[in-house]
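Annual report, structural modelling task.

Input specification for the S-adenosylmethionine complex:
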Amino acid sequence: MSDAIHDALQRPLASLRLSVTDRCNLRCRYCMPEDEYVWLPRTAILTFEEIERLTRVFAELGVHKVRLTGGEPLLRHDLPTLIGLIARNRRVDDLAMTTNGLLLGKQAAALRAAGLQRVTVSLDTLRPERMLAFAKSARHADVLEGITAAGQAGFTKLKLNAVVIRGFNDDELADLVEFARGHDAEVRFIEYMDVGGATRWSQDQVVSQREMLEMLARRYGPIEPISGDGRAPAERFRLADGTTFGIIASVTAPFCRTCDRSRVTADGTWFLCLYAARGIDLREPLRRGASDQELASLIRGTWQGRTDRGAEERLGVADRGALYRIDSLRADPHREMHTRGG
Ligand code: SAM
Ligand code: SF4
Ligand code: SF4
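The model returned the following structure:
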């Protein structure tokens, strides 16, 4: 099979986000504001062997970066076993996971031993009462314990993701920079996106990259951009004392032009874009007994026709509001951010 393939806009197939469950033990207001959801049927959830096989086919077509996500990936029973299966693949040179950290304290060492290379922990606030109000959980201390455990388990270059929302945590930017510095981590501030799941999104709650930089400059003085490879979603910056941080400006400065990412949901639906209305069913051919070649040719042909630029297209929408209302999300759980994996 050939090496990297490119889509219709010359973007390589390089990075895959694997959602291993649509379930979550938090209810972040920007992702899963409701208590109950329409869940993917259990029989539809891919087994570890199926995920490993799909990953292998993707890797033969050029994917070399794999990120496990969810829902909350650590709710998937026995995750280190899956990590071990993927880590054996020599084509995968970057194996990472995004987690809300609640269960990381118990699992960090086993994940590391299984071959996980990098961890990103979502940490929107340092104030437990804010997490209670915004994610319906009193377990803030468990997240902090998870971050400490990740460091102790040997995960370096730890990243902390914070979705910045006006009136919720936009007064904590400097506190999060300080916290990250103290934990040998780098914080990445994410603009609040109008993705599926964010049914309470409105433009006025978005704190733009420009505003974030202004707020931080008032506290720290001049901020210097760090030139990157142009493919990473986060733009990185350096304070005068050398501390670095990132901003993911998906709303005000989308990076679709260089997007090499796609996503497979826990039931094997492949999405070419976070905003795509529909995905491609890979579970059906997988369970029908399709050969690796057949799967590869389906993936290759689909990627070569990809023209998705979801976030850039949303920029042109007048009177932009939430992407979906709750009733239309309920009609298809694949539209949810917690199903697509962020
Ligand atoms: N549960 C894990 C976690 O929270 O880290 C992994 C899945 S979560 C869907 C992945 C990432 O998507 C998280 O960092 C989360 O903050 C981000 N996310 C979810 N909804 C978002 C939104 N409306 N705007 C921006 N980022 C969002
Ligand atoms: Fe929050 Fe992640 Fe769960 Fe969404 S999937 S509710 S972002 S913890
Ligand atoms: Fe990639 Fe779609 Fe996100 Fe643009 S909106 S960066 S094309 S996933």
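The longest strand covers residues 158-164.
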